[in-house]
Design the sequence.
């Protein structure tokens, strides 16, 4: 059963906030292979990388965005980025409010978890909300400073913003 | 015999207005200094006009103005020479005149005679821009030693000026600094002519020509005689036919070699003419390749910077480096995990107690600490089998107490976890294990790495500095040598191609010539053998024998004169090289960089047909024996000056002609300028020097400069030397002369 939850998590499909899809192009290379390798601005190579970054920013900045319309970007799951995804989920699970939300705080609430898929889906929902929140945070910051992603070391600036 | 200029009087000559502009010279060194437009070059032109009727002025050719030597009575340029102010003062139909008057002393061992030469062009003014030349007046006057009055003589002007400086030497004694580096009489065919004029080669050539025609005549006579001989046997006739055939072959081959050699000479001239341009283009090509190398280096650095940027961004989510996890220290999450795990352990304990009431309190505690998934109950069963009884984890033997604990507590516990169908227990256990796996997987990434960004930044900063340095190198390079477009424009591809193809053709031609010369020698030997055979067979024919003896004698004569000619050229080259090198060393004595430079006079001898052909080259070589070529440059001017002085030394005609030089030092370095004056002033070969220079004038102070003061110090003790300042009067009204030192 333990493997069941992990397998289910690693099978999560990849979604992006439909409203932020256009903005995502500021940080994600959506054009595929980059012919011109000359650095122009901060670009994550895939939607997965962009999602991981957004999720991290969301967790650290504690920004969540719920009720977003989602666009599916991949159904391949997270096997190839297992370490990165589980790392971010561990950060989420460490949050007491997330434990409560996932009904993991008491024997009584745990009983509400119907099965591992239910728990996995809840984790996916929370991940998406934090990732979309993180992306929204980046969008807001980008509006304040349009050159934010021109600096490849922008994570350092983001770190200052979220510390 | 020698000549010394006493004074010159330019009349309405460029900016010299009026008929009284006498400039008096000492018999030694005369230094004339002046600002721009003071009339220095115009004064030099006055000497030129007097000697050759010509002046050098800037004339319009296409869209450019270039210096050209023109005849002074060329009406197209008359108004450029005639003083503008004097011409404007002429009324319509007035007769005006311009020209030069010069007084010099002709000295011989027995007497001194003073001459005045006048060359005046008279014209009638028609309008401000129109005129007609009415008279080209030329007259020689001799000065009466007693009354000092000039008297017309019947001597011809040309004869007298030829005595002043003979035409052959004019190019060496009347020199113009700007053109000095490229003096044609010291290059290629011009040099050959110069050498011929200075040596006895012309006479030898004449003798050789006589020998040549004599040889041809004897050859033809022998042929005629041989063909008329009746007494020849059939065998001899055959020999004769063979000999004549060979002679014809020899003649044809000789002609071929001659024409090939002419072609070779043309190619060599072509190569020599375009060598400087080719070398320039080649240098520019090398520079272009250097610049492209620098630009490539910069591009590589930029690519490395980009790679480092990209690498950094990619490393944020890369599973190996995963730098995103290193931004913050997340070790506290371990505690959070411990708490969750502990909670779940508590939940499990509670549930088990609910399910397994018969297990002791102590065993319950142990069970709570174990994860349900491992070990598998089958492994535990194997461990307590009689032949094993060993712990698979710590390898210790199991006692009865241990076996009982495993058998009664652990195995049922694990079997229960697999088999137990209690949903809550299973759910709690699964979630606990899953969370443990998640945290276990993430745990190794919790520690932050504060340096990863700074190190990446440092790497890029180093590369960026490298890029800035490279850019500076590129900028400096472009500042010195021009940019890619400039270099591209300076590369003459046609010249490079032509130079390469000419050299290729020359190489082929040379090897062809070598082969043909070898064949020629072989033919000569064959003909000689045939002649000897014939001679042996016809000893009885006295006339033929005499012919042959005469032929041998002429051949010996030819070889003898060829040898004399070769010796003359060799001796001349060696002597000139020695004398010019001494002059060069003297002129360059203050310049350490040229200390080991040598001036080479090279005689190139080649066997062409029957004769040797000679060509000459004068150049500088450095201590490694490398030929230095920089036409028009400072050392080139010095080289020419040294050769001119070397030639004068060679001629060894002390106090022969006045040395009149305009701007001879303009291209020299400051140290060589000084040594030039030291050389000139102390020279024992040159007698009178008239040196016209601008380099001794300080335009800002409107006075002579420091170098001039040094030169003046050198001149002051010399009683036969002068130092004259030329200053233009306002509005083209003439020239003022100020004698700072006025010698005899």
Sequence:
């Amino acid at each position: 059963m333990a493997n069941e939850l992990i397998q289910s998590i690693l099978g999560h499909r990849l979604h992006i906030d439909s409203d932020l899809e256009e903005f995502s192009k500021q940080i994600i290379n959506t054009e595929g292979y980059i012919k011109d390798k000359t650095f122009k601005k901060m670009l994550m190579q895939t939607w997965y990388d962009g999602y991981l970054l957004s999720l991290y920013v969301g967790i650290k900045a504690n920004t969540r965005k719920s009720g977003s319309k989602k666009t599916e970007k991949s159904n391949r799951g997270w096997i190839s980025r297992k370490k990165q995804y589980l790392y971010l989920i561990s950060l989420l699970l460490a949050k007491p409010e997330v434990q409560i939300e996932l009904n993991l705080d008491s024997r009584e609430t745990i009983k509400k978890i119907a099965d591992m898929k239910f728990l996995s889906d809840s984790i996916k929902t929370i991940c998406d909300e934090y990732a979309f929140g993180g992306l929204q945070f980046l969008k807001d910051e980008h509006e304040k400073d349009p050159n934010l992603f021109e600096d490849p070391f922008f994570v350092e600036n983001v770190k200052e913003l979220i510390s | 015999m020698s000549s010394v200029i006493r004074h010159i009087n330019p009349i309405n000559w460029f900016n010299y207005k009026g008929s009284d502009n006498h400039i008096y010279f000492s018999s030694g060194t005369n230094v004339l200094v002046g600002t721009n437009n003071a009339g220095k070059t115009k004064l030099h032109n006055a000497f030129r006009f007097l000697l050759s009727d010509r002046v050098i002025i800037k004339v319009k050719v296409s869209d450019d103005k270039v210096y050209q030597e023109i005849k002074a009575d060329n009406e197209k340029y008359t108004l450029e020479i005639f003083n503008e102010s004097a011409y404007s003062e002429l009324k319509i139909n007035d007769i005006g005149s311009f020209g030069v008057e010069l007084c010099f002393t002709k000295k011989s061992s027995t007497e001194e005679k003073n001459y005045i030469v006048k060359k005046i062009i008279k014209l009638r003014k028609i309008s401000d821009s129109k005129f007609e030349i009415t008279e080209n007046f030329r007259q020689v006057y001799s000065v009466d030693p007693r009354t000092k009055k000039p008297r017309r003589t019947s001597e011809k002007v040309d004869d007298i000026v030829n005595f002043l400086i003979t035409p052959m030497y004019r190019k060496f004694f009347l020199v113009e600094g700007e053109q000095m580096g490229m003096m044609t009489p010291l290059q290629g065919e011009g040099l050959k002519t110069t050498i011929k004029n200075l040596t006895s080669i012309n006479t030898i050539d004449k003798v050789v020509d006589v020998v040549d025609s004599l040889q041809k005549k004897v050859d033809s006579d022998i042929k005629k005689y041989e063909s008329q001989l009746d007494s020849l046997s059939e065998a001899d006739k055959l020999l004769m036919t063979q000999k004549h055939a060979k002679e014809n072959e020899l003649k044809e081959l000789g002609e071929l070699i001659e024409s090939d050699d002419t072609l070779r000479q043309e190619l060599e001239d072509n190569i020599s003419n375009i060598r400087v341009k080719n070398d320039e283009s080649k240098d520019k090509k090398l520079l272009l390749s250097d610049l492209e190398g620098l630009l490539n280096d910069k591009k590589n650095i930029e690519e490395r910077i980009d790679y480092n940027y990209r690498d950094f961004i990619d490393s944020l989510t890369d599973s190996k480096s995963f730098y995103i996890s290193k931004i913050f220290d997340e070790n506290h999450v371990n505690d959070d995990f411990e708490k969750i795990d502990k909670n779940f352990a508590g939940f499990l304990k509670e549930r088990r107690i609910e399910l397994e009431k018969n297990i002791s309190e102590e065993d319950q505690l142990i069970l709570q600490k174990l994860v349900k998934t491992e070990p598998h109950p089958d492994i535990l069963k194997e461990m307590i089998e009689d032949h094993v009884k060993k712990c698979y984890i710590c390898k210790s033997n199991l006692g009865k107490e241990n076996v009982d604990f495993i058998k009664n507590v652990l195995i049922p516990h694990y079997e229960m976890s697999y088999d137990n169908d209690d949903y809550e227990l299973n759910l709690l256990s699964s979630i606990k294990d899953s969370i443990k796996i998640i945290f276990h997987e993430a745990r190794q990434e919790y520690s932050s790495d504060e340096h990863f960004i700074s190190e990446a930044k440092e790497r890029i900063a180093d590369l960026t500095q490298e890029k800035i340095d490279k850019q500076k190198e590129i900028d400096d390079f472009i500042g010195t040598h021009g940019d890619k477009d400039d270099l591209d424009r300076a590369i003459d591809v046609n010249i490079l191609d032509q130079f390469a193809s000419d050299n290729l053709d020359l190489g082929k031609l040379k090897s062809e010539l070598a082969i043909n010369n070898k064949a020629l020698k072989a033919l000569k030997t064959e003909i000689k053998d045939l002649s000897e055979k014939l001679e042996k067979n016809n000893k009885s024919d006295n006339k033929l024998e005499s012919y042959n003896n005469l032929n041998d004698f002429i051949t010996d004569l030819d070889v003898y004169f060829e040898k004399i000619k070769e010796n003359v050229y060799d001796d001349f080259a060696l002597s000139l090289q020695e004398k010019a090198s001494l002059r060069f060393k003297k002129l360059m004595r203050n310049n350490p960089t040229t200390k080991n430079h040598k001036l080479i006079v090279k005689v190139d001898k080649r066997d062409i047909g029957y004769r040797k052909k000679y060509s000459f080259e004068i150049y500088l070589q450095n201590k490694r024996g490398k030929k230095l070529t920089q036409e028009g440059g400072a050392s080139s001017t010095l080289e020419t000056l040294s050769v001119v002085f070397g030639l004068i030394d060679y001629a060894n005609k002390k106090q022969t002609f006045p040395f009149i030089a305009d701007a001879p030092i303009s291209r020299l370095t400051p140290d060589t300028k000084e040594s030039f004056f030291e050389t000139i002033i102390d020279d024992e070969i040159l007698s009178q020097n008239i040196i016209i220079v601008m380099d001794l004038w300080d335009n800002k102070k409107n006075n002579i400069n420091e170098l001039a003061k040094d030169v003046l110090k050198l001149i002051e003790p010399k009683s036969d030397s002068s130092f004259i300042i030329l200053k233009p009067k306002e509005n083209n009204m003439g020239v003022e002369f100020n004698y700072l030192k006025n010698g005899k």
